[in-house]
Design a protein that fits this description.
Blueprint (H helix, E strand, L loop, with lengths): L9 H9 L4 H4 L4 H7 L3 E5 L10 H9 L2 E4 L4 H4 L9 H12 L3 E4 L3 E2 L5 H4 L4 H18 L4 E8 L15 H5 L4 H12 L4 E6 L7 H20 L5 E4 L2 E3 L8 H13 L3 E10 L7 H20 L4 E6 L8 H4 L26 H12 L4
Parallel strand pairs: 1-2, 1-10, 2-3, 3-5, 4-5, 5-6, 6-7, 7-9, 8-9, 9-10
Helix pairs in contact: 1-13, 3-15, 8-10, 12-13, 13-15
The protein binds (3S,4R)-3-hydroxy-2-oxopiperidin-4-yl beta-D-xylopyranoside.
């Protein structure tokens, strides 16, 4: 493995900032093309509301991305009751992706935060298993042939405040830890082609809690392997923060990714963005720190050829869950809007864009 010991110095960071909107754009190259030249997918999540009509947002998405992640297909959103499902909105998203020559990724079949309330009311374990299987079967059959990958399970590992390996959730409560094997088997039976993925956050830094989560994740994979549970890929959410730049350690990331790829699994960076609350207000400085972190993280990650896709969680700053302050932890103490993504609110490329482009360009070919 070639270890590029690449940490951006101040000088190269300035050069990065100065090149915004220049070279790549004028050469007519978009991230999807740079990624494709290395055998990678570049994608983003986009909300369905951004798809209505031909918006500048959707046009930019189509130019830059080869993978569209639809986060609006959660169980709670498509199944208001056990018998009533509505796929019409997601069908439109799927058709749009196809019309723009993009692959389609489903987020997610199971997530404790997005489970319909009626599921929690099911009394017996058998009925809960039947409902979970019916949901997965229905989703995977309906979208069969269209999916690049499915997040079969989102965020199953315990957070720092709990104990044990798996997060206590409606799934462990109703079914027990076997819900994971059941979910992956059911998904595979209904769609043999889509990559089946386990998506998780909180494994990116060289800090005790993330190192613990890495171990739990690897233990889970080992369990899946020993039982023959069909899993193809790990989604590393990759929500980063400039306040954790020092702990975003390239060697530790490379080591963790190698542990995954040595187990024969692919890796996707599934929700990449950078919280900038620890960075100064000055926009040039802030954008530079954010870009440096994108570059440092991606250089370490993309060195591993098992990484097949880079996905940002939105494209423009305004559109980000970080800027919206969905989690109060993300808000800047000075109240300024966050700048976590590759484009600003006017669809202009930021240093983060150039950092992603440079990292894709430097990646070894798959
Ligand atoms: C976020 C969405 O972007 C927000 O709009 C929503 O309010 C909360 O969820 N991990 C995930 C994503 O897997 O689904 C989350 O997305 C971000 C954290």
């Amino acid at each position: 493995m070639h270890r590029r010991d690449f940490i951006l110095g101040a000088a190269s960071a300035c050069a990065l900032a100065a090149s915004v909107g220049s070279s790549l754009a004028s050469r007519g190259e978009y991230l999807r093309q740079i990624a494709a030249s290395k055998g990678l997918l570049f994608g983003s999540a986009m909300r369905l509301s951004s798809l209505r009509g031909k918006t500048p947002y959707s046009e930019m998405m189509a130019s830059e991305c080869s993978l569209y992640v639809c986060g609006d297909m959660q169980w709670r959103l498509v199944a208001l009751s056990p018998s009533a499902t509505d796929f019409s909105k997601v069908d439109a998203a799927k058709a749009w992706a196809r019309a723009h020559d993009m692959r389609f990724r489903g987020h997610s079949l199971l997530w404790h935060q997005q489970t319909p309330s009626w599921f929690a009311e099911i009394a017996s374990r058998e009925s809960a298993i039947a409902a979970l299987q019916a949901h997965i079967r229905q989703m995977c059959s309906h979208f069969k042939g269209s999916m690049q990958s499915w997040d079969v399970i989102n965020e199953p590992i315990q957070t720092s405040c709990g104990s044990g390996m798996l997060r206590k959730s409606v799934f462990t409560e109703k079914i027990g830890p076997e819900f994971l094997d059941i979910a992956f088997h059911t998904a595979r039976e209904a769609d043999s082609k889509a990559l089946l993925t386990l998506n998780e956050y909180g494994t990116e830094y060289n800090i005790p809690d993330h190192l613990r989560k890495r171990r739990e994740l690897l233990n889970l994979i080992d369990g899946f392997k020993s039982r023959g549970t069909p899993i193809d890929a790990i989604g590393i959410q990759s929500h980063l923060s400039t306040g954790r730049a020092a702990e975003t350690d390239q060697e530790s990331i490379a080591g963790f990714f190698k542990e995954i790829s040595d187990r024969g699994l692919k890796i996707m960076l599934t929700e990449l963005d950078v919280v900038d609350r620890a960075s100064p207000a000055d926009i040039a400085t802030r954008d530079r720190e954010v870009a440096q972190l994108y570059k440092r993280y991606l250089d370490a990650a993309l060195e591993n050829r098992a990484v097949i896709a880079v996905v940002t969680w939105g494209l423009t700053d305004k559109d980000s869950w970080i800027t919206r302050g969905d989690d109060p932890k993300f808000r800047r103490p000075d109240g300024l809007p966050a700048r976590p993504l590759p484009f600003d609110d006017h669809f202009r490329r930021k240093p983060a864009y150039e950092a992603i482009a440079a990292a894709l360009q430097a990646a070894p070919s798959r």
